[in-house]
Every structure is written in C-alpha cells, then in structure tokens.
Design goal:
- The structure is a single chain.
- With 303 residues, this protein is α+β, with helices and mostly antiparallel strands.
- It folds into 2 domains: 4-184, no CATH class; 190-300, no CATH class.
- The protein is built from 8 helices and 14 strands.
- It has helices at 7-21, 31-34, 100-110, 163-189, 230-237, 253-257, 262-267, 289-300, and strands spanning 29-30, 38-39, 42-43, 53-54, 64-67, 81-82, 88-91, 115-122, 125-138, 143-148, 205-209, 225-229, 241-243, 249-251.
- Strands 1, 4, 5, 6, 7, 8, 9 and 10 form an 8-stranded mixed beta sheet that branches. A two-stranded antiparallel sheet has the order 2-3.
- The radius of gyration is 22 Å and the shape is elongated.
- The chain starts with 6 loop residues before the first helix and ends with a helix.
- Residues 194-243 form the HNH nuclease domain.
- One of its GO terms (molecular function) is endonuclease activity.
- Pfam families: HNH_2.
Length: 303
C-alpha cells in the first residue's frame, strides 16, 4: 500500500506518463491504456469506469475527472460548460455536497492540486488535458469552476473581468482544452485521413474549422470540422481551396491558371471538381451544409 505522502510524486508521475503516451497531449488514449498506469510497482488506474471523479484509495484528493463522450446531437448526463468569466464549469456528482467524490474535488481545490481531465472523444477513447485546477465552487449551482494552468490564480469565479483579461482567459482555455479535444474528435471522425486527398499520416494532419472559432457559429464541433493535411488546410484557410455544401472541392480560378510545378498541379489543380475523398461514417458527423455555405461564400469573394 502506498503512503498518503505519495500524492505529489504520483501526480507528477501520472502526468509525465501521459505526456509520453499521448504525444505531449496531442493524441487521445483508450480506456484500457489509462487503466494500466503503475506507480511504485502498484497499478493505479487513472480513470474510473463507474465514477466521473477519480480518487485512488491512497489519496485524500481527486486525481482526475471525466467528461463522457456523447455522439453528435445527444446530451451528456452532466452538462459542463463555460461561465461568463471564461472558466470551465464541472458539475457535482449528484446533488449532495457531501458526496465522497465532491469532497475529493473540494480537497483538491483547498490544496491547489493539479488534476487530469479526460474528455471523451469517441466510445472508450479520451483526450487528456492537464494540468487543470479547481479554481472555486458554486454550491448554489451544484458545480465547481476549473482553470487551466496558465490562468489558475488570475481569476476568481464569476468576478467582473476587464475585457482584455477575459479574452486572455478564453483564448488560453481554447488552446489548452477545446483545441486538443476538437482535433482528436475530428481526426477520429475522418479515420485519420485528409478529407481532400486521403493522406493518412496523422502528424501531417490538422483539424480545420469550417468557420473559425472567432465566428458566432464557430463552435468546437465535429460538424464544424474537416480533417485536412497541412497543404489543404493552408489552402482552405487562405481561400485557394473551397468546399461547397454538396461536398465538392473547388480551386480558385487564378490558381487553376497558374503554372508552378507538380505540387501545385497534383496537390491543388487536379482536386478541382472532385468530391471529398473521406467523410465520417455517421451522417450525423458530416460537415454542416450551413457552415460550408458561409465559408464558400467567403471563398467566392474577390481575392
């Protein structure tokens, strides 16, 4: 049996292990792998099959939390969200403030301990986000406020923030939490292949927003995403390449007329008029026609 003094070394070891296994936080991991972590010769699963808040028996504070995966269009049993202060909200377990799992998160808050957040991106697959911290509790709403590392300590939950600080909190939260989850969700939906050319090297793929996250419709949803290789992502963002609502690739006219060697010819010009080569399996995850229409109208504007 490990001693309670092992708390800090265990957390550090778990996060180091996750850094290596998840390609520095870029890739999701399957449940069975997250259950295989060992510390000082003992197996210490980082995730719990029955509980959203994981507290190993040897610890007094929570080690990790889970947001379960739900397919596009369905709801989660606990709906986590973002507050007006830019911090993430994580719901209590049930309605009892003294539930063991809620107490475990409260201890982590009081001791300012780092946590691991596992966000479901497919059945049995989780994107690790770490470290996150419990920045405060809102008992009247049955929830905790969470902050990512860079903004922990900068903001008290639901305090008035100057616009510049709020934008900073939101930007860091998107970079540290939403973007890795968005990338994992989109790349898994497209089976790790570029939608335009079917390139299958994950390191050369991006999750491209159809409409940018700065847009009022720019949610971090698989229906607002396309898996694209670096070339086609850049071409899409820079309006060299557009995709119609019927999923047809178009190349800008001046690019079609340009002569600049085999990369331009095979990478872009010969893609003109083809349908997307790769799409998600479920039609519910297909790119939104409405969002494609917004971006395609922008593509048609004069360069």
């Amino acid at each position: 049996m490990l001693s309670p003094e092992a708390d800090a070394p265990l957390r550090a070891a778990a996060m180091t292990w996750l850094t290596v296994r998840s390609n520095d936080g870029a890739d999701p991991l399957p449940r069975h792998e997250l259950e295989s972590f060992h510390f000082e010769g003992e197996r210490v699963p980082l995730i719990d099959r029955q509980r959203g808040i994981r507290k190993p028996a040897i610890l007094e504070a929570a080690l990790s939390i889970i947001t379960v995966y739900r397919a596009e269009g369905t709801t989660r049993p606990y709906e986590d969200g973002t507050g007006s202060d830019g911090l993430i909200r994580y719901k209590w377990r049930g309605l009892d403030p003294d539930h063991a799992e809620n107490r475990a998160l409260r201890v982590a808050m009081e001791r300012r301990l780092p946590l691991i957040w596992f966000v479901g991106v497919a059945p049995g697959w989780f994107q690790p986000v770490f470290p996150v911290y419990v920045a405060g509790e809102e008992p009247q709403l049955n929830q905790f406020a969470l902050a990512v590392d860079e903004v922990f300590g900068l903001v008290e939950p639901e305090t008035h923030l100057e616009a510049q600080l709020r934008r900073y909190v939101e930007r860091v939260t998107k970079q540290r939490l939403h973007q890795p989850v968005f990338r994992s969700t989109v790349l898994r939906a497209y089976t790790g292949r570029c939608a335009v050319c079917a390139l299958a090297h994950r390191d050369l793929l991006d999750a491209a927003h159809i409409v940018p996250d700065s847009h009022e419709r720019g949610e971090a949803s698989v229906r607002n995403g396309l898996a694209l290789c670096k070339l086609h992502h850049s071409a899409f963002d820079n309006r060299y390449l557009g995709v119609t609502p019927d999923l047809t690739v178009h190349i800008r006219q001046d690019i079609l007329e340009e002569q600049d060697g085999p990369t331009l010819l095979h990478g872009l010009q010969r893609r003109h008029g083809q349908k997307l080569m790769v799409l998600p399996g479920p039609r519910s995850q297909y790119p939104s026609k409405e969002l494609l229409e917004i971006t395609y109208r922008r593509f048609l504007e004069p360069a």
